[in-house]
Amino acid sequence: MLAENSSKREEKPIPPNMVEIAELLSNLTKVDGVKASALIGKDGFVIEQKMRDGVSIDMETVGAIVIGGLHSSEAIGAELNVGKVEQSMVEYENGIIFSKLLPEGNVILTVIADQSAMLGNIRYQVAKLAPELQKQL
Fold first, then answer.
1. Of 14-18, 78-82, 111-115, 127-131, which range is least confident?
2. Residue 93 and residue 8: Cα distance in Å, rounded?
3. Domains in the chain: boundaries
4. From CA 77, how far away is CA 3, in angstroms rounded?
5. How many Cβ atoms from other residues are within 10 Å of residue 27's Cβ?
């Protein structure tokens, strides 16, 4: 009887706020040059992610590495007495990783882009999107 009941469990619907978050990240991923975007918790786990078609990135690994980088940046900030980290950006030979702590500081929005992306546009889009994402959390 127990096995029968467990096999008939209903799938829980996706909460409306997660649908909205997924849509917001999807729109961000449509920005020229952006390959992927993700909301990452301070524990390093990915809350939600979106990638362009044909892009394959292990965002769980990226999330863990982003958190490690954040901790390093926080340590540097504390040593230099310059305040808390608000955002970080690393330019590589073939791409950019941009991360911004959302207003309450408990979630990080990370954008992965190729070298063709316009950093100013990414920063603008992220600044515009961050408060909307925070409302959904």
1. 14-18
2. 51
3. 15-136
4. 54
5. 14
CATH number of the domain located at residue range(s) 15-136 in this protein: 3.30.450.30
Q: What is the Cα Rg of the chain in Å?
A: 17
* pTM of the predicted model over 0.70: yes
Give the sheet arrangement for strand 87-92, strand by strand.
46-51, 34-41, 107-114, 95-101, 87-92
Q: Which residue has the higher pLDDT, 2 or 77?
A: 77
Counting every residue written for the chain, the total comes to 137
Residue type, 81: N
- What the block records as the tokens of 107 is 């979630």
What residue type is 119 in one-letter code?
L
Q: Could you tell me what percent of the chain has a pLDDT over 90? A: 70
pLDDT (mean) for 34-61: 93
